[in-house]
Design brief:
With 332 residues, the chain is α/β, with parallel strands linked by helices. Helix content is 47%, strand content 18%.
Length: 332
Amino acid sequence: MLFRRTLRSSAALLALLLPFAAACGGDAQADSPADVTLRVGSTGWKTEEAVLKYAGLDDTPYNVKWSLFQGGDQQLQAIRAGALDLASSSEIPPVFAAADGTPNFKVVAVQRGATLNQEVVVPKGSKVTGIAGLRGKKVGYVQNTTAHYFLYELLKQAGLKWSDIDAKPLLPNDGLAALNGGSIDAFASYGTSVITAHQQGATTVGSGKDILSGNFLWSARDSVLESPVEKAAAADLIARITKAYAYVRDGHLDGFAEVTADATHQPLAQARKDLVAAQAQRPTEARTVGDDAIASQQKVADVFTELGALKSKLDVKSFWSTALNAELKKAL
């Protein structure tokens, strides 16, 4: 029942977002920054909004409306429905959003970030100690996200095929409930859901840390790129997030660790340890669109074609754009 409910929730998301998109508008041309409202997605606990506020960089001359989603896949669905202007995700969600028809968005920037807390976990007391032990097991995963990708790659490394497990697509919160309730034997997820799983006694049997590229993508609706004022606002916001993380690294880690601990309900020491480790592994910072980033996503798309999740090979550069490069470079 849990699995079916989760699948229905994804299918219903677009229908729920359509009236919201109509109410919000977003296609009218703005004449000045004060007329602009960027509708921006966030996954987990609105980390980007929090870091901007912490660094004192949330005083934008334009308006920002943040919306929280359980995954980047849902953000891209919202972009497709016209309910978001900017979506932040891993490399995977834009692939599926573009493969599902003519996309109304472009990938306009890359945010380099840590690949920690991207794991396959098993519940407390499990006898599974590694990926090879998942053969024949019920394994939950967050579909069309990093979890989908690194789970497949970890299975290959262990000599297993996707068909060797009973794969169950689940949203992060539903996956946690299924793991704790015994409905699944393992769960591939990321971020806050992995942190919470460990707090509840789960252990790690596989990690995507060295599998994932660390490229997290900013996707903008085409209408944003058609408006000079909205385009400038998008570039400014992305640059501000980079500057906010630089502020955190420059002697302000402890304070943002407190913000993180409060939001994720974890001990302060653990929040600080994770924050230090993440920024040490790969400092959070934006980059303009380049051939290397496009090639990295093409590799990911080809893996999903191999898996059979995509019906045919997808040329990812068709939904990338350098339209934000000049403004973003200047803002950075």
